[in-house]
Amino acid sequence: MEKINYENYKMYKQAQIVTHLKKIAITWISWPSAKCILAVSKRAYEIAGIETNTSIICLGSRNGMEPYYFELLGASRALGLDICPTVGLIPNMYSHDFHEVKPEIAGKYGLAYSNSYDHCYSLEKFIKATTTWLHDDSIIILDWSPEDHTSPSGIADCLGIGSNELNEVVEKETGFKLLIELEAWKFISDRIGHYKGLLHKFYCSPSLSYKLNSNSFSMRQKVIDSLKEASDNAMKQLLESNQQVLIEEIEKRYSYNMSFFDQGKAFVLEDVMADINLER
Ligand SMILES: C[S@@+](CC[C@H](N)C(=O)[O-])C[C@H]1O[C@@H](n2cnc3c(N)ncnc32)[C@H](O)[C@@H]1O
Which pLDDT score, from 0 to 100, does residue 148 have? Predict the structure, then answer.
């Protein structure tokens, strides 16, 4: 694991907020990824023989499109957390540092998703806090790509970690075990640099792992094949659907979210700047 160390917490927060505001228009997650993540998680619950739980908390969700994609594609509930105070203006978003537990929403979600853990000052603290949002039978999904997650790459992307080491940290700190790592949809990973080699890594809670393994369906290879099939089916369904309608919905919501940002920016920025003592 490689890290950029900050002088203090204020410097860390400042780096995150400034970068967040600069990149507010960019959405990293793609909706095919959200579709695949939901389909595979649902299949895992089916195999375990327990009620499907697609309520999802997303950690580090910038402009709010991330929880929106999950909601649009079938999650029962979706919330995004982000350290930047401006996100409080955007639907489905809540301003909170994802290293810190928050008892009000503890234990309320079945799934947790993040592609932003490379912004952690402590991966161990982040991953432990992540488990507190979740039910006993739950899944953590971390996206990992060689280009984005292997080494620190800027003032805000302060942590780099290899794929295997990430699995080790998650298991050591939380007891959640790697269930499967799926290559992202080729259409995305072939074309765009950041997504090259992108893996969706699914980690199961100890209780869900036990149920998956003690089931008659328990042969590991059978489970893996079934999860891959769920992902392939989801992509097929997406390709066969009227994507134009989906794209229009997404564009509408994007303008809506950005309008909250534009409205709030001026006065919230004043506060943010004052709060973090940023030189302008
Ligand atoms: C790479 S961007 C995420 C993009 C988003 N997940 C997406 O797919 O569009 C990282 C986000 O994490 C947020 N972030 C950084 N540190 C954080 C922290 N400690 N707690 C919560 N959010 C944080 C940043 O403000 C930024 O919006």
Answer: 85
